Every structure is written in structure tokens, then in C-alpha cells.
Amino acid sequence: MISRKNRLKRSEVKQVLKKGQKIFSPVFSIKFVENREATNKFAVIVSKKVTPKAIKRNLLRRQIYEILRLNKDLSEKKYNIIIIGSPKILEMTYSEMEQNIKSLLKKIYE
Prior knowledge:
single chain, 3 helices
């Protein structure tokens, strides 16, 4: 799990959803805003539309947070980032999710 200092607060999530730039892939959509803090901050959203079972949604969230924890410092610029999963995420393996998220993060950091 990602540390508390690297997670977005509710007010920050609302701000990013309202004012953030967007990047899309078939599986994830990412909204992000540059921040002025020392670290990247993340939030992950997996809705009931993806799967109605909370156990599965929480598993997907934990997997995505782990991928983010391992790849959080790829850039010198720091961002507030929200990753939103689509129903296609259920068909992916962990390594496929990791590759997809890494490629999207590289687009942000460029």
C-alpha cells in the first residue's frame, strides 16, 4: 500500500477531477494536475460499474496502489494523479496492468 503522504485527500481529489488534464487508454483514464509539493500524490477509483463486489474492487485498488508505490518517483515534476479503472481491468493480469500504468505515467512525466 502507498504511504499516507502519497495519497490525495478528498478536497484534492475534487480539485483534480474538476481541473485536471486527461489521458486515456482502453483500460484506464488518468486525470492529473501539477502540484507544488515534494512528492507525487495518487488516488485510485474503481467504481461499482467495474464489478459490484467490494472484495474485487478493493483487490484491484490495492494492486494499482502497489504499482504506483513502486513507480512513484519517475519524474522531477510532481503531480496529483487520479487513476480510474474501466471494466476491462478485470481481464488483465497484474503485469499487464503494470505495463499499462507505466506507459501512461511516462506520458504524464514527459
